[in-house]
Amino acid sequence: MSEEITLDGVGVAPGVLETIAMAAAEGVEGVAGIIGATGGLAGLVQKGSSRGVCVEVKEGDTLVATVRISAVYGRSLREIAGDVQRAVTDALLTHTGQAVAAVDVYVDGVVFPEQ
Q: What is the rounded CA–CA span in Å between residue 43 and residue 27?
């Protein structure tokens, strides 16, 4: 996804939508991190699902997001995933004004608290 996305006549880089979704997911209680999210130059070079978050524009200008997370042990994975779906949906809708058709959350890891 390297091309500019047009939302209501405004050009938006795909990375902007992914950053919005990533920030929303990372703010959810129980999310230890985004799988594949790296900082620095490597984070800028990686594209799409290899970064842990991918946002695409589908038919009717609706958004579809895929988020890969690691969860903190001790809380229901279903609750964490639901909270991530709501947070990402709200963030994308708020910042873009576009409807969100789906937010697919994959729990790819569990992090245990250090004792």
A: 19
Q: Domain total for the chain?
A: 1
Which CATH number is 62's domain given?
3.30.70.1350
Mean pLDDT of the chain: 86
- Mapped to the 3 state alphabet, what secondary structure does 30-98 carry? CEEEECCCCCHHHHHHCCHHHHCEEEEECHHHCEEEEEEEEEECCCCHHHHHHHHHHHHHHHHHHHHCC
pTM of the complete model: 0.83
> What domain range is 23 assigned to?
5-111
pLDDT tens by residue, 82-106:
999 999 999 999 999 889 999 999 9
